[in-house]
Design a protein that fits this description.
Blueprint: H1 15-23, H2 25-40, H3 49-68, H4 78-100, H5 102-105, H6 107-110, H7 119-145, H8 152-182, H9 186-199, H10 221-234, H11 241-265, H12 269-272
Helix pairs in contact: 2-7, 3-4, 3-7, 4-7, 4-8, 4-9, 4-10, 7-8, 8-10, 8-11, 10-11
């Protein structure tokens, strides 16, 4: 009689889960590459959509908020001010939307073969990182146009800001993907919540308009990311390291919470999805 191996999901998160994700890293790469190809397949301009979307959004915001409403931008040209915010916000929002629906959209795969389920929400985030890096080409062009010279600190801090943004979207996305398996309200509620979150994040405005109440915005981890990005890339203000540290810690807590909840619910995925 052949040996029978029974694979059961663990009830708790452990370092073995991270080791297992690393063992299946080639599958993570395959899912990421598949999502990239499917997204831009049979499109007229292909990967250029990664540049077109944030650029057009920047133009619209610059006309209405920068030109007509005259939203304060800390004496920074509004187009580059808002584009820096849009870059990180779209990385976060798009990654969160995709990862939250990753288990439901991938049910045909994970109900038939075994692999670490965490790979699905993680791999759904990676294509948006590629979009982010491509969209940075517009930022480089804006910096030259408005005569902003990138400093060494901006080059060093960008990877940290990207990691914090990915940690936040991954933590919330992993949590919501597990919730979405049981409650299919998530795809209906999430776009509404993301839209609200955008207006309580300093994407299109500066926290200086809140004056003494600006500290309230520090609760939102994306505030620290966007404020630090503007300070580092544009060099018009000093970096608030305490705010950045606070954002990083909040993101790590949310990531750990998301993974723990995911592992707790994992045993029910195949039955509910």
């Amino acid at each position: 009689m052949e040996n029978l191996i029974i694979i059961k999901p663990q009830k708790r998160f452990s370092l073995q889960d991270l080791k297992e994700v690393w063992i299946y890293k080639e599958l993570l790469y395959f899912f990421t590459w598949r999502d990239l190809k499917v997204r831009y397949k049979q499109t007229a301009i292909g990967i250029l959509w990664a540049i077109f979307r944030p650029f057009i959004t920047m133009v619209v915001f610059s006309i209405f908020f920068g030109g007509l409403i005259k939203v304060p931008s800390d004496n920074i040209p509004y187009p580059i001010f808002v584009y820096v915010g849009l870059l990180f916000w779209q990385l976060f929002s798009a990654s969160l939307s995709e990862s939250s629906n990753s288990l439901v959209s991938g049910r045909a795969i994970f109900t038939k073969i075994y692999f670490p389920r965490l790979i699905l929400p993680i791999s759904s985030i990676m294509p948006h990182l590629v979009d982010f890096l491509i969209a940075c080409l517009i930022l480089i062009g804006l910096m030259f146009y408005y005569h902003f010279i990138p400093s060494l600190i901006s080059l060093l801090i960008m990877p940290i800001l990207i990691l914090i943004t990915l940690a936040l979207s991954c933590g919330l996305g992993i949590f919501l993907s597990a919730v979405n398996v049981k409650y299919r309200d998530v795809p209906h509620v999430l776009p509404f919540l993301i839209q609200i979150m955008m207006y309580i994040t300093p994407v299109i405005y500066s926290t200086s308009i809140l004056q003494k109440y600006s500290w309230i915005m520090a609760i939102n981890p994306m505030t620290g990311v966007i404020q630090t990005a503007r300070a580092a890339i544009l060099g018009t203000a000093s970096i608030n390291w305490l705010l950045l540290l606070s954002s990083g810690l909040i993101c790590m807590v949310l990531l750990i919470f998301g993974v723990i909840y995911f592992k707790k619910m994992e045993k029910h995925f195949a039955d509910l999805v």
